[in-house]
Amino acid sequence: MTATLYDRLGGTEGIRRIVDKLVDNHLSNPVVSARFSGSDADNLKEMAGNFFITGSGGPEIYTGKDMVTTHKHMNINGDEFVAVLDDAMNALQANDIGQREQEEVLYILYSLKDQVVGI
């Protein structure tokens, strides 16, 4: 049996570490940091972690809004989307996640583009 992406990312603990680094990357990235100004970083990490856990094959713990509702009227542009993808890849690399898993996460995140950019 093949392990789920959730398992290969280190389960809940591994994903929480990745998401902590990811949100920290967003907060310090000049391309997107203004989007997070005034945000509750701990809540953001919790919700993003839950989304990532559920979306990677882990327990169904995400109870937040869907991607379109979350990003509607934010007018996110392509450069911001790419910056977020770069932040995600950097977070995965900082947590020593393998190339195959990085590619899978990138594919999943990129598949969400139409639900995030320009809506």
UniProtKB/TrEMBL annotation:
Primary gene name: glbN_1
Keywords, alphabetical: Heme, Iron, Metal-binding, Transport
Entry binding sites for heme: 71
One GO BP annotation of this record: oxygen transport
MF annotations from Gene Ontology: heme binding; metal ion binding; oxygen binding
Organism taxonomic ancestry: Bacteria, Pseudomonadati, Pseudomonadota, Alphaproteobacteria, Rhodobacterales
Named cofactor requirement(s): heme
Name of the protein described by the UniProt record: Group 1 truncated hemoglobin GlbN
Alphabetized Gene3D superfamilies for the sequence: Globins
